[in-house]
Amino acid sequence: MTEPKTVVYPGSFDPLTNGHLDIIRRASKLFDRVIVAALNNDAKNPAFSLEERYDMIKKCTADLPNVEVDFFHGLLVDFARKKGATALVKGLRAVSDYEYELQMAMLNKHIDPKLETIFFMADIQNSFLSSSSVKDIARNGGSIKGLVPAEIEEDIYRKLR
Ligand code: PNS
Hints:
By secondary structure, this protein is α/β, with parallel strands linked by helices. 42% of the residues lie in helices and 19% in strands. It has one domain: 3-Layer(aba) Sandwich (Rossmann fold), CATH 3.40.50.
């Protein structure tokens, strides 16, 4: 019998966008178990607490039985190893993402050579989308409809307006 394939999809998810959710859905069709892991990116000052981000991701993935949500402090590779993951999943929107993602993939591979990083190309309609722009629009009174899952639209407005 082959081992179930577990992958970790890490990110700040500050907040989750339709682009993230699309990657989660696509990964859930290809792998047995997808763990969405919200981590604090030290380079960014998050607007939502890890618990708030966890709750929003949980709400939006409730219909996906092989998707789990978690959050973690520390090294991503340690978390992935603890969860029995064979790969990390990341999304690539544009060439501009490539350099940063390549660097992270190479460093993670250096720390744990057995852990692969698998990239999903963002859907064209999400290629312009980022959590930062969602926050910017919501803070300034614009509409984020169609940019984030409908289930969390109000949570985002409530926090940022
Ligand atoms: O959504 P983001 O902000 O691009 O996600 C970046 C994240 C959280 C995946 C990255 O910062 C990360 O992996 N942080 C955990 C700490 C770690 O393992 N650092 C070494 C990676 S090179």
